[in-house]
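Before relying on records like the one below, remember that each one covers exactly one chain. Contacts with other chains, cofactors or solvent are not represented anywhere in the record.
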Amino acid sequence: MAVKTLFLGPSYPSVSAMPAPSKWTKNLVKRGPANESADGTLYAHQMAVKWEWRGAWEEIDATDLATIYTEFSRSRSLALVDFDSTSWTVVASFQGMEVVQLEGTNPPLYNVQIAFREK
């Protein structure tokens, strides 16, 4: 049975409970260098296939934003316990974290998007 809350933190099982994202995707991504030949043909050298997670939180308050930001900003590896209760070692993706403050909300509410990849 899947857990109802996403967990992310410095080590498993001592992880921080995070608010459940409004949208959560898990994708397999091919890893390895790609080269382009003189005629424009692209060829890749696949080294591995790893998981990547993308999450989006909508209309969250400053407290939940601080929790998400704290875990995302850690530079070391993190333990991610996905909704299927599986623990993964992940790092924050270089795409960054996108935070948008919603207009006309008092106290302010935010929309957040982040990405993690399997280490």
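The helical segments are 62-72.
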